[in-house]
Specification:
Blueprint (H helix, E strand, L loop, with lengths): L1 E2 L8 E5 L4 E6 L2 E7 L7 E6 L2 E8 L2 E9 L4 H15 L5 E3 L6 H12 L9 E4 L1 E3 L10 H20 L20 H8 L4 H17 L1
Parallel strand pairs: 1-9, 2-10, 5-8, 7-9
Antiparallel strand pairs: 2-3, 3-4, 5-6, 6-7
Helix pairs in contact: 3-5
Amino acid sequence: KVFESNEESGHLILTIVVSGHFFISQGRTVLEVFSLIDSHKWLKIVRRADCLLLCAQSENECRMFRVQFGGDSKEQMLEHCCNCVQKLAEYVPVQVMEEQSQQLYHSLSQLANGENQVKDMEQSASVLHVVNEPLPDCCTSLGERRSLWCFFFFSLLLSVLKKEFELPLAYRHSVWPAEELGPFIRLCLMDQSFPAFVEDVEKELRKLTEG
């Protein structure tokens, strides 16, 4: 599936927030969200010219998507891509593929297509803006934020049930210092619906523990 950045559908925005979370949003819709914390264990990123190819793998499942950066000129598109790579490199290595060499691209494609029970979803996006600020207003509705809150509540749920399940690598934050949670929690508290959502979760957890 291809997402185009335009006035009609909405501009695509790539955001890396201070908590280490990676977002791609279009208008009021979040298309992609995951944590970059410990992402080197499950995420591979390859840069080619003004494009990034991201390959996320968990056990025997793999999914890929491509991001192409926009700009008024080829030089500006490359600059936007380089700025994003510089920020991503703080969390995960980014491989650079030369124009004349496509071995890395083919190896990632084979990885995605060669495993059993593989989920292969390719997305192409033309991203006009890359920001490293708190999540913009376009991503602040209750429904869209639930994808963020699940990082906390899913872990809490598993703890309450005392099951030996493990979260996917993308949602494990064992090395995330508690003092760095502040900006992430403030992001949730900005939504007036957040307290009611927390209350609903607590009620459901209580039902599970009492049952």
